[in-house]
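[audit] Reproducing an earlier prediction to check determinism. Same input, same settings, fresh worker. If the tokens differ from the archived copy the diff job will pick it up downstream; this log only records the rerun itself.
[audit] input (353 residues):
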Amino acid sequence: MQFSGLAKPPIGIVFDSALGDGIDDVLALSVIYALEAHSETRLVSTSTTKSSLRSAMFAEVLSRFLMGPPPVPRAGAFAGFQRPVPTIGMPDNGKLGQDTPVIQAVLDKKKADGTPVYARSIAKLNDTADPATLIRNALTAQHDGNCLVLLAGPATNLARTMALAGSMELIKAKVKCLLLSWGGDPEGAADASVKADVAAARQLLENWPTPILAVGSGLGTDLAYPGHSVGKDFTWADAHPVVDSYLAYRTMPYDAPAPSLAAVLHAIRPESGFTESPLGTISVMDDGRTRFIAGASGTHRYLMVDPARKAEILRTYVEIVSAKPLPRPMRRRPPEKKDEVPSPAAKPPDPAN
């Protein structure tokens, strides 16, 4: 349900990814939380396509860290208010359950006394949620047209969400755009996330009822997150899960392709320096490659970059991702209107008139 007593909030983001398999989605999650602290967006659902408690734990660790400290209460507010750590959606289908160096670097990092550096509470399946149900319920709570969906992994969870009764109508009403950080490029390069579940990718592209904006791997590489930032811009933290993830993903030095980061930045700050291709249709071939056919009847576009603004965009990447997490803004329900009481001097209406 929507809460009519509250002003329309910033646009919400449903985030679904194979968390722990790469670094791009970690960088994107950093940007989402940073922009949320400035009331530019809200993270309304987080889920992983990996059937792995370790992936869900990894998602929780990132959320706990990136949410920042509790806000300083205003006069009359509850001291110590803290938004709870979001429920993490995780499938139990046994797919993509492998551990990864990224997950190990974060979850297995220990203090001198042997306890984990990064706290988490997830320990069993019941500590997570079914991803399709979680996403459907998150959409239900949004204002119409005030939600984005970011997919940075296989389409499995979203395909299951679409199959739930009434979900297609819900998606059409609530979702402004699906941000798709896979699908190769308009030329047809393959993507591991498509290959992981070709049937779900095809179902998503053929049936998703709102516009789709895809970020090809070429743009992600062309605007890679600069690795030199990791060693110098995060020194304010003794331990940082994004830094640990980055160092574990590949051997340094390297710049990390960041299509999801680009998608989020463009969606929330459309003046950031990106452009969009003409309309067309992206389809999935049997071998997992994608194909883009331009046409005004399509509802798909590709994200592109203004070459003259590349340096500016990369500076923005570093500025946002490396920023110290801020307290979340406290939104308050506006005061309720009191029922008006007629003046004692006013005459009641004559029923006969």
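[audit] rerun output stored. Observation attached for the diff report: Strands lie at 12-17, 42-48, 88-89, 147-152, 175-180, 212-214, 274-276, 280-284, 290-294, 300-305.
[audit] end
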